[in-house]
Amino acid sequence: MGIPASYRFGAHHPLKAGHLRMLKAIVCGGEEGKRAFSEWEAGVEFDEIDYLAQLLAPALYVAAGEAGYDGPLRPRLKSLYTFFFTKTSLLLSAVAPVLEDLRRQGVDAVLLKGAGVSAALRMPPGRRPMHDLDLLVAETEGSRALDILSACGFHSVRATEAQRLYWSPHGHDCENGRGHRIDLHIAALYEHVGPGFDDGLRARTVTGSFLGAAARIPCPEDQLLLACVNGVRAPLVFEETYPDNLLWILDAAGLIRGAAIDWGLFVATAEARGVSYNVRYALRYLQSVDAGLVPTGVMERLRDNLDYGSFYVERALRVHTRYHRRRQAIERRNARSGNRDFSLRRIWDRHRIKRLDESFISCLLSFPGYLKLVWGLGHFWQLPGHALRRLMKKMEERKCTRSTNRASSTR
Questions:
Q1: With 50 as the cut, is the pLDDT of residue 309 above it?
Q2: What's the confidence (pLDDT) of residue 19?
Q3: How far is Cα 238 from Cα 33, in angstroms, rounded to an integer?
Q4: Where are the beta strands (DSSP E) in 187-305?
Q5: Are 111 and 151 in contact (CB under 8 A)?
Q6: Which of 130, 127, 126, 103 has the alpha carbon at shortest distance from 115?
Q7: Residue 209's beta-bridge partner residues?
Q8: What CATH number has the domain spanning 5-301?
Q9: pLDDT tens, position by position, 369-388
Q10: Residue 268: its pLDDT value, please?
Q11: Consecutive H or E run containing 111
Q12: DSSP labels, 136-204
């Protein structure tokens, strides 16, 4: 069962000029890379770069050093490199005991995404920032692995199993209370939850080195596929949405340059999983950065195939379409209402959109607690008085505005 034509995705979203220059400077190297770095440096307001650019800054710092380019912004790039090196190192030090316990107790875990790519390409922590550690275990070992994580202080962030199935059916998001997270997958991809989907991936795993110990990682072809599918999920699910992460482009480029990719296996795996459309969409991003990354003929071999299976289609239509429409409605209403971040309606909108898996009555019952938290109150009994004071202040502001307008009109 494929996604219906009415749910087909919009046009390809080109990379922003600043992001594209950064990526070219990192990926292309040589004179082209130096030219891209110079253009980026000349046109950027460093204090205003967005978070996506901040994540690319460590790799840009390393690439500039390797190319012998020492521009005026390189010291500031170094500060971001140091920040992400420290942040990622703290994450790795927190998860190292968990990996050791999993190995000692015989749980077969495969490193995915950033951790898998870092292990394959032997990258230092600062060059490839990581927000969490992604591990794949067999569905039959999921409960045992979750118990091991809990014993190490990592607990699920979802309050109920229903919430987990709604937001993250392919695994368990776990956190240790200090901001360190482990994404425990029972399926490698969000789109494929069920027995048999990952048998080929697990059979093709290779041995890499991670945190000074041997670790199982997907083969380069599977790593590249995971990077592509995960990288373009946001613009494919939400129309007119820019990718929410650009590190996957660096991961994909590093895998293509650092390993001999069997493109026949890559295309066959994409076809078998029904993600050819996603992969072709992602490869266009790679071609925009460096046309030489994707060999001739690969794009033509990827069919317009979208066949995730009935589970994902049902969930995509029920969850993401609803979320997207609700978000669009909220954004339109917020644009009309102006900058009133702490208005009651704005707070309700935030609360409701975080709990799309709950009924309206359930959201209504939990709203006072959320309101107390947002308003910074210590007790529920303070809510009526605080709301009344806010209402009186708002009425006074409106009265003053009307008086000012009348005075202006009589002049």
A1: no
A2: 93
A3: 32
A4: 206-210, 213-217
A5: no
A6: 130
A7: 214
A8: 3.30.460.40
A9: 888 888 878 888 988 888 88
A10: 92
A11: strand 110-112
A12: E--GGGHHHHHHHHHHTT-EES-SSHHHHHHH-TTEEEEE-SSS-EEEEESSSSTT--STTTTHHHHHT
